[in-house]
Amino acid sequence: MRFAHLADVHLGYRQYGSEERALDFAQAFKKAVEFAEEQNVDFMLIAGDLFHKKSEMDPVTLAQATVVLERTGCQVIAVEGNHDSTYFRERFTWMDYLSSQGLVVNLKPSFAGGEMEVEEWDGRSGAYIDVGDARVYGLKYYGMLTEKILDSYLPHVVGDGFTIFMSHFGVEGYMNIYGCINSERLHVHRERIDYVALGHIHKKYVEDDFIFNPGSLESCDLNEYRFEKGIFLVEYDGELSYRHVSSFYRPRVFRVIELNFEDYSSLRERLLRERGEGKEVVHLRISTDRNIDREKIEGIARETLNPLVLRVEVDYSRGVLQATNLSVSSRKEIERSVISAILKGFGYEDIAEEVLRLKELFVEGRIEAVDDIVTAIISEKVEEAREELKREEREFETAEDGEEEWRWWEAG
Ligand SMILES: [Mn+2]
Fold it and tell me: What are the residue boundaries of the Calcineurin-like phosphoesterase domain, all occurrences included (predicted)?
């Protein structure tokens, strides 16, 4: 038995407003599916985020999904990611639409009177399906409720034969994003589950030949460009073997160029040396202590690099140190924006205000107050998380079943 495991396709993502980038995502999906077909897989898994936007669907994006899926000769089994569904608010999703067209099997549990039901796929809905010699269980993205839902879902998994559990959430330890779960919650079910197929974190990882996350096909964010991308090709013949493959396509190249601005002609020389082979997404970060002509810089960069997308960030922080004649308020403003930019570069939330408060305490030597402020920041975050959990629980309790959407069919 052989299958392919994809995740985080993000069809319809016009990154940086670029139509070309939306084509990149569509091409990557098409090539991944074609590659899997050539490998004679028995089925394919899409572990969430097939689409980039949950509501505003456009005809081109829908065609990019349907045309590719229509041509596959095997069953495609999917779950909804955070980009495909809005937890409980939206009842019928675009993944449900694909499922109604017979293009995917969209697995998710149902809820009757608040009780979770994990039922077999009946052609329209269900949480598991037998395909070949395997059984695939699916659970969509549940945000802050993931742990709670997992604890009531996983005991339903029977575990006779090769058993796959597919879902869309992050596992702690691979990327600093909010709301990841501890993998121990999955490991305790190892006796009944052979393969955990995840999506959500856009970076490849494998834990104990048990938890598999292929990463996205394209970079959805600047932070992702160094991550390994691709799909898993998995084989089971009494023993599990797998490969992470990306040879079937070439993801768009992102290039980050950081330099100190000296003058326009050395800038031109430096950029000429940086020119890549194809059209790239270029992030140009320039630090300087003087006023520079941004348009002129962009012109030089376009001419020398011929980029697909050009993003220019000018960092005046070198100048801040010397700008003694600035008023206190504008200096603070510059400082705040520099710290914001640094935090953003590392993928952190904007906590520039808090960082500045900490800095003040250090400068004033009030080290004893640092503890208080750190505790305050953390408890604020914990409080926010609690609020979000409460909100999701409320939505969860008042959620209606997607089956309702078929009333029009049955009414006649
Ligand atoms: Mn994603």
Answer: 1-203
User: Could you tell me which residues come within 8 angstroms of residue 406 by beta carbon, excluding any fewer than 6 positions away?
Assistant: 124
Give 35 Cα–ligand 1 centroid separation in angstroms: 21
Residue 4 burial (CB < 10 Å; 0-12/13-18/19+)? buried
Nearest 10 degrees: Cα torsion 369, 375, 380, 384: 170
Q: What's the CA-to-centroid distance between 238 and ligand 1, angstroms?
A: 32
Q: Are 180 and 190 within 8 A, CB to CB?
A: no
Question: Using CA atoms, how far apart are residues 295 and 317, in angstroms rounded to an integer?
Answer: 20
Ligand 1 centre distance from Cα of residue 138 (Å): 17
Q: In what order do the strands lie in the sheet with 2-6?
A: 105-106, 75-79, 43-47, 2-6, 231-236, 240-245
pLDDT band of residue 244 (cuts 50, 70, 90) is very high
The answer for residues whose C-beta is within 8 angstroms of residue 231's C-beta and 6 or more apart is: 4, 5, 6, 32, 35, 36, 214, 217, 244, 245, 246
Structure tokens that stand for 351 in this block: 């906590």
Give the C-alpha separation, 197 to 158, whole Å. Answer: 17
pTM (2 decimals)?
A: 0.82
SS3 at position 330: helix
What CA–CA distance (Å, rounded) separates 280 from 16? 13
